[in-house]
Amino acid sequence: MSEFQALSEAVLKGDIKTAVAETQAAMDAGANIQDILDTGLIATMDEVGDRFSKGIIFVPQMLRSAKTMQECMKLITPLFQKGGVTSKGKVLIGTVKGDLHDIGKNLVLMMMEGAGFTITDLGVDVTPEKFAQKTQEIEPDIVAMSALLSTTMPSMPLTIEALQNAGVRDKVKIMIGGAPVTDKYAQEIKADAYASDAGSAVTKAKSLMGIS
Amino acid sequence: MKESHNPKARKKRTEYIWLNVLPDDLWLNVRRGDTLFDVLQEAGIELDADCGGLGKCGKCKVRILTSIKPPSSDEEGFLNQEEIDQGVRLACRTQINSDMVVQVGETEIGTEYVQILKSGHRPLFQLDPLVKKQFITLATHHKDEGLSDFDRIKLAMGPDYLDMTASLSCLRTLPQSMKETEAHGAAVLHEKHLLDWQGWGKLAYGYGLVFDLGTTTLVGKLIDLSDGTEVAVISRLNGQIRYGSDIISRLQYVKDNPNGLARLHNLLIGNLNRITRRLVEVGGLVTNDIFIAVAAGNTIMLHLLLGLPPDGIAEAPFAPVLSDGMTIKASDIDLQLHPEALLYTMPMKSGYIGGDLISVILASGATEQEDKIILGLDLGTNGEIFLGNRKRLMTCSAAAGPALEGARISSGMIAKDGAIEAVGFEKGNLQYRDIANIKPKGLCGSGLVDLIAVLLQLGIIDEEGLITTPRMSIAQGLAPKVINKNGVNNFLVAPAEESYDDKPIFLTQQDVRELQLAKAAVAAGIATLMDEMGIGVEDIDQVYMAGALGNYVNPHSAIRIGLIPRIDTDKITSLGNAASTGASMALLSKFYWQMANELIDFIEHIELSSRLDFNEYYVEHMDFTREEPLDVHHEEVENVMKTIAVGSVMTRDFPAMSSTMLAREIANMSRDTGHHGFPVVDEEGHLVGVVTLADLASCLRAGNADLPVGDIVTKFPLVAFPDQSLYEVLTATDEDYGRIPVVSREDEGHLLGVLRRQDIIRAYRNKLAKFVQAEA
After folding, report:
1. Euclidean distance between CA atoms B399 and B378, whole angstroms
2. A197 touches chain B (CB under 8 A)
3. ipTM greater than cut 0.95
4. Does the distance separating the beta carbons of B610 and A98 come in below 8 Å?
């Protein structure tokens, strides 16, 4: 951990310039790319998610950290292409039909990306059919749905039904979130997990995938 | 609307009996012996019941108002003696064996606030009300010619009225009423339709009603149509609140329950009929005297009023059934006015820009403004915003969430008794004012905004919104109030022993985050409209605030937290209950009714959720702005402050209070004006001292609300002279004063004005800007 202390701090602060320089320095010094990713970046983003869940940092700070992480990733991904980077899992994400809110969903997306997941974003106002069709097409591990209005929450069970009808329900884990959504609601509609914020979304996604 | 049962069609068969459910005043025809719990459940009345009606959780308590047997042994463990005496029982253990009246939920909903206005606001425009009374003398010779009664009236009214129509009920009573009036009568007219024929009697011109259908509060006004004055105002909590405190949950209720729309509609009509009865009673009238009413409200409330399914508004693209202004017979929706009375409902722009905002726009005068640019904010659960003038007017609706009304805040509450509504920092400590001057129960929107503004100013909340331990020396006294819990700081607003419920009132870190989301939504909405209009903050000439928060929020605090842009506070005006003011304008003038309808096509509505730049603005506005305190000992500041004379920047027309006024009257003044302190003068107008929020708070809490303010003022306060420089005044004391009285050097009792903290800051900024200009 300590060998990437400066990088870690820069990501926490959202200091892109320093973080990129630190990443470059670590690469130049011959550090293991996987270590830079795991202990320098992903572990730090876990910390960012944790701080966000507690309220110690807020949306702008988390976004800045996520952006910083993305910039650092730009440096190291080309090297991975050769050796092959292992994704933590494939996630299909979208805001459900009738709902146009996307900030919360985008935060989840960025945090998951930061944690090493591969994300496909369907955007907002996504119909159940669209979810089902894309699930068949890309075969994700997790389907994540967001709803910010209590009136659009019913689109969630409808989407699950559509996945069922398409015969892919059992091939994916379903997680849901958004201001009016609760853990109880997740159980009611038989989703696999509920996350209260972007930080815990990552934790939940990992446990769904059986990784800690 | 038909809900299911009609109380009047009571069946004779004895196995069915009546259950009257309050406060909804719902009549249910039920089978004798049924359990109250099952019946209520079936009727869609939600009761808390963790155990599902097994008598195990004790949560389904209701109050039975008709006579009732002693509680069963199952119930005894859940009820105390007081409850038993009051008729409280568990619904799941109560059988209905005879006609019964039952009270479900809070009784508080019935509280009404009546205000009789002795000198109501008189409008300045030409009156041309929607319903008119015309005084007519009939020609007696027509009677002998065998002309019809109705034709005689038409002839007397002149050639323009030959095509006049009449209501059937009017014609039915015409012979009788013409006999009473003889030749001198008055025609009650709606356009060219005769509603009634009356004597010249006491009701010179008639009265009309205005309703503002708020999600939380319903307001009714009785308006004199002859001169436009408001005779009486009544407000009460919207009874629909039982089915969800915010409008979306009510929408959800309608979607989930087959009877939901009818229930919410009937509840609203029942509430409005009650308000009407009280209003006419106060005005010395009867409901039959009212021929016209105008209703304003958000799109969903207007749909519920008319009994229109609002479901379309629930999801994108949020399409309502109706957006036009409507004219209907009041009796069509069972509003109990004159049988021929008309109800106008204000036009709406879209699902989320309702008849309330259209009314606020009318009231603001923005559509009559050619050159000045007006920014209007109606701040409640949704922040509705408009910008522009009669050349171009844009609106948007920012999903601020309910935080600004106190919801989703750990100690939040709506603005009612016990809510902290203003917070200031005086004498090293926080001072607050709560509604009704009782021990505080929680924070309402304006109190929350004030509190966060103060904590930002003191550095206890940093610009990212994090609660931290104070570093500034001035705020050290508050350090013990910053309490760390699991690595996160919360701020203790009032300890348990100071609060009404003996529970501590906290501002939690999460509360600050909720407020950040809300204020960012509004600020980003404003920024988006300004962008679209191509203007900057300096181009805005006037800001009008309306809505539950808009009326009471301190403009300085609103600016400090970034809810509204940094605009000279002199340009910010509260519009009061602007939705009802706009509806009154439509009632009193066809011109404004017409304008409201034209506005719908004229307004450009910006749908924020479909714009990419909105999200950027939204995130950008979540942080607070850093504001360095002015350090007068800093050389640069000192140099500037030395060049500014007190007399040139003080506020001259600041209200001074008479020393004979009572403490509670001053508290009300503070509430109405938003000022946290006042100079106090004696009968000759000589300065006696100053009274501040801190003085008032300690006096009111000690139960001395009726003490004359002369007895509680701080005597011999620090004063300033007009020829002094700001530097001299600021260095004369170490204490931080919100306002300092300015007196004449010749006569130190002669009050010339008040030097406010914001006067100093504004003067400093202006001067600094001039320096920079001169150097450039």
Report:
1. 12
2. no
3. no
4. no
